[in-house]
Amino acid sequence: MPEISVVVPAFNEQDSLPELLRQIRESLQPLKRSYEVIVVDDGSTDNTLPVLRELKKEYPELKVISFRRNYGKSAALSVGFRKAQGDFIFTLDADLQDDPSEIPEILPLLEKEYDLVSGWKKKRHDPLSKTIPSRIFNLVTSLMSGIRLHDFNCGLKGYRKEAAKSLEIYGELHRFLPVLAHWHGFRVGEKVVRHRPRRYGRSKFGISRFFNGFFDLLTVIFITRYKTSPLHM
Ligand code: UDP
Ligand code: MG
Q1: CA distance 79 to 76
Q2: In angstroms, what is the span from residue 203 Cα to ligand 1's centroid?
Q3: pTM of full prediction above 0.85
Q4: Residue 92: nearest ligand to its CA?
Q5: Is the CB of 158 under 6 A from ligand 1?
Q6: What is the tens place of the pLDDT at every residue in 163-195?
């Protein structure tokens, strides 16, 4: 059984995946721990799936899950977590914006003090149309959830197995995983991580992310805190 699982949601990321697999290997091999890489092809319409099939020949640690259609990042993470066998589970975006060499640095934090460590893209390499809404989103989420984080929606996160497996992720809840974990009583921490510009392909979330984010936060509050006491709301 692998000790570490890396879960990667991928929607039309054919050009990034070969380099990503190479970087993951380069970062994890020196750890001398067994690991698996689970890439969830979220109904891609480019060559993501054929590219993954080809990569399997070179990377026996690679496991591929493929959705028949595009179900969204939350669904991809949810299925990836269910499949993951490691005691420590990491998530990375497929587009090379997250740096796999952060994994060995997050691991000791999970071993020592946290159940979930969320990446903080302190210096972001994204357009302003994304970074400004994101700041507001993070501030409001922080105030409403009662957990102080700078960057809730970083693709790079590490989990102890129990934390990842206990999260029920659907809809757009992938933006709130630290909140859900915190409300379950898990110890949630934050670590500044390197962030890189997107090299290939394009972002899958437009300006709609801004509005959807708030509706989703309200939804989370309704379905978690007030589920059994709706009149208190
Ligand atoms: N993604 C996915 N399904 C989707 C949209 C995105 O699996 O429906 C993946 C995507 O391939 C990437 C990650 O989620 O690995 C983050 O997406 P993206 O880079 O477009 O988001 P951004 O960096 O713009 O927030
Ligand atoms: Mg990205």
Answers
A1: 5
A2: 6
A3: yes
A4: 1
A5: no
A6: 999 999 988 889 999 999 998 999 999 999 999
